[in-house]
Design a protein that fits this description.
The structure holds 3 protein chains of 3 kinds. The N and C termini of chain A lie far apart (68 Å). Chain A is built from 15 helices and 13 strands. The mean pLDDT of chain A is 92. By secondary structure, chain A is α/β, with parallel strands linked by helices. In chain A, 38% of the residues lie in helices and 13% in strands. The longest helix of chain A has 39 residues, at 361-399. Chain A folds into 2 domains: 72-83 and 375-481, Aspartate Aminotransferase, domain 1; 95-371, Aspartate Aminotransferase, domain 2, CATH 3.40.640.10. Chain B has one domain: OB fold (Dihydrolipoamide Acetyltransferase, E2P) (Beta Barrel). Chain B is an alpha+beta fold. Chain B starts with 6 loop residues before the first strand and ends with a helix. Chain B has helices at 30-36, 83-86, 90-93, 118-129; strands at 7-9, 14-18, 24-28, 39-43, 50-51, 56-62, 65-70, 75-80, 102-106. Chain B contains 4 helices and 9 strands. The longest helix of chain B has 12 residues, at 118-129. Chain C is of the alpha/beta class. Chain C has a domain at 10-23 and 63-81. Helices cover 33% and strands 10% of the residues of chain C. In chain C, the strands form 3 sheets. A 7-stranded mixed sheet of chain C has the order 1-7-6-5-4-2-3, with helices on both faces. Chain C has a 3-stranded antiparallel sheet with strand order 10-12-11, covered by helices on one side. The chains are: A alpha/beta, B alpha+beta, C alpha/beta. The interface between A and C is large, with 210 and 214 residues.
Amino acid sequence: MNSFRYIPASNKEIKKIYKFIGIKDKKELFYKIIGDISLIEEKDLSFMPDQMDELSLYKYFSDINDKLRHSGSIPVFAGGGIYDHYVPSAVDAIMSRAEFYTPYTPYQPEVSQGTLMALFEFQSMLASILGMDVVNASMYDGAESLAEAVLMSLRIYRQNRQTVPNAENNKKIKFLVSKSVNSVYIEVVKTFIKNLDIVIEFIDIDFEKGYTDADDLTEKLQKNKNVCAFIVQQPNYLGIIEDLEIIDKIVHSEKYAPSSKPHLIVCSSEPFSFGTITPPGFYNADIFAGEGNSFGNYMNFGGPLLGLFATKKEFIRQMPGRITGKSKDSKNQDAYQFILATREQHIRRQAATSNICTNNSLNALRAAVYLSLCSKEGFKEISLLNLKLSHILCEKLINTGLFSLKYTGNFYNEFVLEINNKNKKKNKKNSASVFINEMMKKGILAGISLEDGGNAVLIAVTEKIGIKDIDNYVKHSIEILS
Amino acid sequence: MADNNKFYFAKSHEWISIDSDNFYNIGISDFAQSELGDVVYTQLPEIGRHYKKDEKIGEIESVKSVSEIYAPVDLTIKSVNSKLNETPELINDEPFGEGFIAKIELNNPSDLLSLMDKNSYESFVKSNHE
Amino acid sequence: MKKFPGTSGLVFNEDLLLNQGSKGVSGINIPANNLGSAHMGKTAKDYIDAKFLRNEKKSPLLLPEVSESTVVRHFTRLSSWNICVDTAFYPLGSCTMKYNPKINETIASLSNIKNLHPMLPADYIQPILKIIYDFNSLLCGLTGLDEFTFNPQAGAAGEFTGMKIIKKYFEVKNERRNIVLIPDSSHGTNPASSYIAGFTPVELKTFFAAQHSSSEELQNAHDSGYGHDSAYIVNKIKNNDVNIKNKSNGYIDINELKKYINKDVAAIMITNPNTFGLFEKNIREVAELIHKNGSLVYMDGANFNAFIGNCRVSDFGVDILHLNLHKTFSTPHGGGGPGSGPVGVKDFLKEFLPVPYISAKKQATNDVPCASNNEQVPNDEQDCYYELKNEREYSIGRISSFYGNFAVILRAYSYLLSLGRQNISKISELAVLNANYMKKRLKDTFLESDPFPEELCMHECVLNDNVFRAEGISTLDFAKSIIDYGFHPPTIYFPKNIHGAIMIEPTETESIKTMDSFIDAMKEIKKKGNKYASKSPKSTKTKRLNEVLANKNPVFK
């Protein structure tokens, strides 16, 4: 018999190997390799639970899954960078093929064409959706992707200024960041740039409309001669659509860039909207760094997600991550492989454009299958449905008189409502977090509290939400708040 | 100071020569290109920029390796071989001719005397790399 | 009976999906949401300003126009062009391509678990937080470290996290230390991660090869992908730094290390067992020297499969460690990811870990922390309340959008539970046994290729190309040839200081029969010689690729 179900060697065969290599037992084997470093003895393993057969394991996690029915199978109106979209069965069916999920990174292209061609299709589809020239084969998540975009803009900035020997270059490099960018993403960016002597300066938002204040942006660009890039999110964290046309004009204006052009970085938490609104690539965005989890991936309690990264062709050599390219094989057939590997850590070591190696390839493949299924018209329609449903909910909630719209700019499928104070008894139910907790008791994840202790709720709607769910949301809000 | 058509070599495998129009050219040696393999990309130096001896002036990439080009002596870039942008393989095909990297000015032409001539470079390569 | 798995049969051709469409066809139907007539006929411009709308003329959307059935057939055909762990022996050195248990996939796709939004209130995610918390306890027990963060999304992110912790540690101590020592056999991610975290990586030589790199090696340097560094070789040639004495060793040399130790050294970043498949015998002495200098010991735990359950990293002086759940802990590699790279630290570094983290309190008395290491999991009946917290005195900050790759962590946890106390030490024992079995069985033909013939290896064995080269077979040729025998090639041209390296890691989940068959194939390839090998692979749909074309004129969409 073998000792464990994943181990093919029988006990007899194990003895045979020991004999073959001339070692008596495990003790001698490890002693000869690790010397007198102490071996863990059985009694030291008491912290480990008993082994579990497959059925017990299944039951154990099934129980956990059952306990989570009031969190994992309820209508989700929370977004904030991760959205509850429906995943068609065909995505799961294809992605459960071991040929896709059990290989390593495709270093041997002759035996990895399936993964490589699918990644090529992923890159092509995303490039078209974003309006960007070149998309890489994935990063970890939206936050890390944005941090990498910041590092990349630094490289471009330095390259552009190599020959500018003026004193301006000795000043600290600045990033201008709209206050409407996901603050968690900015925290991650700060971790990455901590020791790099870089300053972040925030750009105000129009407190009525909720989008970036163009005047403040202009002013800060005029004031600062050493701006590397402007970071904006589309739609922004508050759900509001930014006017990228104006931002393009301001940021890319030569007036504000004495020696080289500053760069526009767009971070979008929801490329889903680009089935409806014009994507950043068509407004000359230099780098796109966003979160693609909405395309065919589950929320998985926050990971794995799908970091998207795209840029203009001229910057391709500064790009982090793997890029799949089309080539020919020795029989002149189309074939795919990773290209421009000289950017990467395994060749350029510390001079690499990033340290990333393992990425989120399988999530990218899920996105490729999802977008293929949607097809051109389906993607537009499902994107439009998200827009409609969110506006329907918004309108109905405002009509209750219990909420008011905090920002009046155009929004896609996410918006901020403030719980009105007037209809309140003194039981603090107008605080957003209390409201969300009360709604959880009714089986609805009502949104995200915009700030601690505040009364603003960030609410997202996807196609998974039906009109019935919307009516329930309204009904329970009235119960709780009035 | 320097003979026409004579090549001066650095230990880091760059060469400098003077062409028939009395311009100095810089490139990499036949040995260096053969070590690199098929060149797919070159990052050319900046026109007008002055580089100090041993400063990096550019990069040459093959499929899976990168090699830096250094200034063998103090020099200034007059013009670059922009043909390399479209046809980087010129470096493999004609390292001493059409595959040159740039036309340069020397601050001090006598610096060339610190470099190796063809024979000593060849024996340098032989003794170090075979 | 066939000696090798071999390859033959039907392979489908398949065009890009974009070329297969018919206008207007789609693979989904839009959910009927009973919008009501008021909204049914409306278009986007009824809701938002027309100037924001995507315009098919100005910004065309190039997506395929195909049905569900076409999509499924397309990707299923593509999948048939991949070799994977489930179809073939995949002895990729340093990658630990072990079997990926199917029950873990089932568990990760349980519907409530996979549909959890990360911002749910803590009351509603108690079992999930408990899983991460309990998994932490198990990893602490197995490594001897005191706390893990699960936020890093892969190994390189773990390295970056660890390096940031070291940076912050010295900042708080008000010491300026900028150097991280990295042995030359390290993964390329090590210097890259330490550099991005703000350090200057300094290479430590551990192995001096007899031969310098040839142009053939440079030419063939491509397919390693894994840490191979031909740029380094080119620069070495250019710097005239080739004729170093032949001193085969493979371990960190204490005297060599001493030369590098000074007050600028923040840490050593050490892969153990190293990429020669050898356990760093001197590691305790190394750690002692490093600690005496006030520096820290970081271990790259990519190869933890070599001793999990048999020894603890705390017993040889490691302060910080990252693990790769997609290697040692059996989670599938996904054709490139996702992975997970938890980082563990000793007690004195806990406050530096990234946020958020999970804390646990006994329900009844709010102040008593829940026991971790010494309790049995999952049988404990402790009534704990778990929370996600952001307060850590010296935290390096956030490194990911949420809390790392939970679905990967879940699979790894399930794997540990299935192994349990009874089997946890067996996996590394068998991984080491299998590698040594292969190493010894290869000796009759490849003795001349074994750089460490006297040593026992750990989880993988490394060969140089001496034997194959004598037959005119390059390492690349060998790798491509073994595909036709029905195997995935081993890692090649890495580690860089072994000439034409071939790095074989069988893992514990392969049988003697499989290993024997692979070894026989190696011997047969050698016998068949150059003519055969240079034209391989022959049976794959795609033959060897034109890498120059792909890189000279990049086509990426």
